[in-house]
Design goal:
This protein is mainly α. The chain is built from eight helices and no strands. It is globular and about 50 Å long. The two termini are about 30 Å apart.
Length: about 200
């Protein structure tokens, strides 16, 4: 409820204006050299909350369209939530860094300069974001997997690609890490109050 309340206040205060405007206008530019990232709280929170609510919106839309919600594969999250804080941080950092190196740094910093055209940029972003999202199907419960429910991760891939191009590797790494940490923080009390919801269930 705290996240919802803060998001509403953030929206009323105009906090989403900057990230939405940046995302809408970025790909119209011909110069895509990294900018200096503004390490301001409202900038960081804006992108995290934008990604969070776009993802939630996509999930709700898919639930309505498909008329079902797949059982998610919680064993990975259960192991993470069982870790001590420092070990949890290193585990999150390891996973996020690996994803950002494979899906943002390599395609956008190594492959894109070989072509350097706007068409190549879009092809690389689309392919890397789609593959990034689809691979997250492994987070879902085996036997109940639905590739359509990787749409939130695919959308996140586009946002993270923008952040990498606009602000560099450090910025996208920090925001991705904070986003994942926020999700775990939200999931942790649910697990502690209702641990059976994280147990594997038969189809």
């Amino acid at each position: 409820m705290g996240i919802v309340a803060y998001s509403i206040w953030f929206l009323i205060d105009g906090g989403f204006h900057k990230p939405v405007t940046q995302l809408a206008s970025f790909f119209k530019k011909t110069d895509i050299s990294p900018q200096v990232f503004s390490w301001k709280w409202d900038t960081i929170v804006g992108f995290i909350l934008l990604d969070l609510w776009v993802s939630i919106g996509a999930i709700l839309l898919l639930i309505i369209v498909t008329r079902r919600s797949p059982k998610m594969f919680f064993e990975k999250r259960k192991r993470l939530l069982s870790l001590k804080p420092l070990r949890l941080f290193y585990s999150l950092l390891e996973g996020v860094a690996a994803e950002e190196i494979v899906f943002r740094w390599f395609p956008l910093a190594i492959l894109f300069p070989l072509w350097g055209t706007n068409l190549a940029l879009w092809i690389i972003i689309v392919l890397s974001s789609v593959i990034f999202g689809i691979l997250h199907v492994s987070n879902q419960e085996p036997g109940q997997r639905n590739i359509a429910f990787t749409l939130p991760q695919i959308l996140s891939g586009f946002v993270l690609s923008y952040l990498f191009l606009a602000y560099g590797f450090e910025a996208v790494l920090a925001i991705h890490l904070l986003f994942d940490a926020l999700l775990l923080i939200a999931v942790k009390p649910v697990w502690e109050c209702n641990p059976e919801s994280f147990a594997k269930k038969s189809a």
